[in-house]
UniProtKB/TrEMBL annotation:
<dbReference type="InterPro" id="IPR002547">
    <property type="entry name" value="tRNA-bd_dom"/>
</dbReference>
<dbReference type="InterPro" id="IPR051270">
    <property type="entry name" value="Tyrosine-tRNA_ligase_regulator"/>
</dbReference>
<keyword id="KW-0820">tRNA-binding</keyword>
<feature type="domain" description="TRNA-binding">
    <location>
        <begin position="98"/>
        <end position="201"/>
    </location>
</feature>
<dbReference type="GO" id="GO:0000049">
    <property type="term" value="F:tRNA binding"/>
</dbReference>
<keyword id="KW-0694">RNA-binding</keyword>
<dbReference type="Pfam" id="PF01588">
    <property type="entry name" value="tRNA_bind"/>
</dbReference>
<protein>
    <recommendedName>
        <fullName>tRNA-binding domain-containing protein</fullName>
    </recommendedName>
</protein>
<dbReference type="InterPro" id="IPR012340">
    <property type="entry name" value="NA-bd_OB-fold"/>
</dbReference>
Length: 266
């Protein structure tokens, strides 16, 4: 039985040899088959019995079990980096955060006089806790007698860029409340016991120590910080100055005006 099987195998291989003889079609080499995409080099299998003559040997190439597997990345091929994630959008700055950049201080007018070149302007020297009083020009002639301005306690916006006001450099602004028609104007007043130079803040008493560092005059101008904050300043029914729902205060209490309710502050 084994001899008969050997003869049948031999006959099959002879037919394969004739069919794929060099004269008709070359037998692909293992290297050639390895270059075929998705096919790994075939393994030679002999159909001859061990005693068969080497001259009659015929090899058939059968594909490996891994044939058809997806091609892997070529050796040495550089991997493309993954795209960087898009940056998160910057958080919007709140009005309260902008207001904290303003240097608003308690001041005291030590001297006041009429501007020699402008009928509507007063000139004041104001103590804001610095080595020398600041010179400030204010358009209050039509709203406030000079006697009421002299020696008064005031609120000063101190980190505005200096402005030339008819030949006199004004270095700050006195803050005041005014009605919608701008016919009535009253200075904001710090509570009794406030100290010149103390920085004002908006909020509760315990929030005093949470104040951020004041912006420079250049930053206030460039980023329009005062223009962004001012529309949110108002006086309440009891004439207290507020930023939104946050009262303006010093260590001695809240800042107020005399009589104007629901007035804008500038």
């Amino acid at each position: 039985m084994m001899a008969a099987a050997a003869r049948m195998a031999f006959a099959s291989c002879v037919r394969l040899h004739v069919l794929f003889s060099p004269s008709s079609m070359p037998i692909p080499t293992p290297a050639a088959m390895a270059r075929t995409r998705g096919v790994i080099a075939a393994k030679p299998v002999s159909f001859l019995a061990p005693s068969a003559s080497p001259a009659a040997s015929v090899l058939c190439y059968c594909s490996d079990a891994t044939a058809g597997a997806p091609a892997t990345q070529a050796e040495g091929e550089e991997k493309k980096p993954a795209p960087a994630p898009a940056p998160a959008p910057a958080a919007e700055v709140t009005t309260e955060e902008l207001a904290a950049l303003l240097d608003i201080r308690v001041g005291r007018v030590v001297k006041a006089w009429r501007h020699p070149e402008a009928d509507t302007l007063y000139v004041e020297e104001v103590d804001v806790g610095e080595a020398e009083p600041r010179t400030i020009c204010s358009g209050l002639v039509n709203f406030l007698p000079i006697e009421e301005l002299q020696d008064s306690n005031v609120i000063v916006l101190a980190n505005l860029k200096p402005r030339n006001m008819r030949g006199i450099k004004s270095n700050g602004m006195l803050m005041a409340a005014s009605d919608s028609s701008h016919e009535n104007v009253e200075l904001l007043t710090p509570p009794e016991g406030s100290v010149p130079g103390e920085r004002v803040w908006f909020g509760a008493e315990y929030e005093k120590d949470r104040q951020s560092e004041a912006a420079s005059p250049n930053q206030v101008q460039k980023k329009k910080i005062w223009e962004s904050v001012q529309p949110h300043l108002r006086t309440s029914e009891d004439c207290t100055a507020f930023l939104g729902e946050h009262p303006m205060r010093t260590s001695a209490g809240v800042v107020f005006c005399k009589t104007l309710q629901g007035a804008r502050v500038s």
